[in-house]
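Hi U.,

Before I forget, here's the chain from the pilot set. I'm dumping it here mostly so it's searchable later in email.
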Amino acid sequence: MIAGSGSSGAWDKIVSRQAEYAQRVSVAGRDIGPPPPIANVERRESCRWSLLRFGQVYHPEVCYLEPSEDQLEMIGMIEQSIRYGALYAFAMPRGSGKSSWCRIALHWAISFAHTEYAFLIGATATKAVEAIDSIKTWCRFNLEWAADFPEISHAAISLGGIAMKASGQLCCGRSTQIVWEKERIVLPVVPPPPNDPVNSAAEFAPTAGIVLGVAGLTGDGIRGSLFTHPTGRLVRPSFVLLDDPQTDESAASDRQNDVREALVAGAVLGMAGPDKTIAAVMPCTKIKPNDMACRILDRTRNPLWRGTCRQMLKSMPKNLSAWDRYFEVYAANCIDNPDDLSPANDYFREHEDELTEGAVASWPQRHKPNE
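Structure:
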């Protein structure tokens, strides 16, 4: 028997009700609700204008040693560039915390909306992605920070690490417009926390729509950095951080040094657009004479950059021949019994005054008790 028109109408109503119910369930499941209150307003506000304080409070696993004078100078340069705009380049030895502080600086900048669009450039695309992965992890699993910055963490945690959920995420019925991609994140468009001491009456948190992008220096991401903001505006990076943007291989090649220097002078400094001035910081390591880092640090060759160099030792030991004798003892010890360096250590202690006279370390707090 064929159903009549009345039966068809009833069936359409059933289907419509089921679709509406499924839509309500779907929306309810995707709606994360408003951000919760800030856990510790005083702790958060104490870091607003201090990158050093932010690192020590929210990243103690990285900033557990007292910073050296050179590190304080580096931190100050990064902070000044983010807040006021400048081009800084500084060379420091490997292991000086450059990359760690670069990532912390970006985390600080987006947390307090100190920049609308930050961009990190690594020596390779892999290094750049590692950096943004660190920041994405902090946004989800750094408990103290997440509790104090719910306007970011609430939406980030709700994704559960599944980037595909970003496009459907809602907050109070509106799309959060959060982006959680491999090489770019866009912070959620959500109301401010109810106890935000600065912006609680605003419709959206100041961090809404802030962009963080990354790319390798020689990749396509630099020229493709233009982004459509959730408001519909086209935005370009206003702050760029070049994190040690050369490799051992590129530093040994004149051609690659030429290419990378040209990219920094052209594509990177032009990322803000033809009528804008970009702020940038480049912590780097000198690897070879006249490599890309050496060239950018040369104020005569690149006067736009304020280049400075720092060494592992501020001054060398007076008696270098004493060190020659020590290295002979150390080498012999390594050959005879590499598992027990007591003889070499005993020799060092016996001649410590002679060996260390005149030497000044740039970061004495880094000295290990067993060294």
